[in-house]
Amino acid sequence: MKKDFKNMSKAELVAKRDELKKKYMDLRFQKVIGHLDNPVQIRTMRRQIACLNTLIHQQNAAESEK
């Protein structure tokens, strides 16, 4: 998954992060209601969002160096 993210542009990374955040919120709501099929999805999704945030931050840092 990380390898897929590294080839993306900054705009694509931001769009993917926003999409994953929406899905993460849905999973949290399902957990509260009690209809969550796979609770490990929450952890995986949170880690993917963190990875995207890191890559976005790295690209911002690289742009500011130039």
Automatic annotation (TrEMBL):
Lineage, opening ranks: Bacteria, Pseudomonadati, Spirochaetota, Spirochaetia, Spirochaetales
Check the record and name the SUPFAM superfamilies matching this protein.
Ribosomal protein L29 (L29p)
According to the UniProt entry, where is the signal peptide? none
> GO CC annotation: what is one?
ribonucleoprotein complex
Task: Provide any one GO MF term from the record.
Answer: structural constituent of ribosome
- Keyword Ribonucleoprotein in the entry? The reply is yes
Name recorded for this polypeptide: Large ribosomal subunit protein uL29
Q: Name one Pfam family in it.
A: Ribosomal_L29
Gene name tied to this protein = rpmC
Q: Which InterPro entries match?
A: Ribosomal_uL29, Ribosomal_uL29_sf
Q: Which UniProt keywords apply?
A: Ribonucleoprotein, Ribosomal protein
GO BP terms: namely: translation
State the family named in the UniProt similarity comment for this chain: Belongs to the universal ribosomal protein uL29 family.
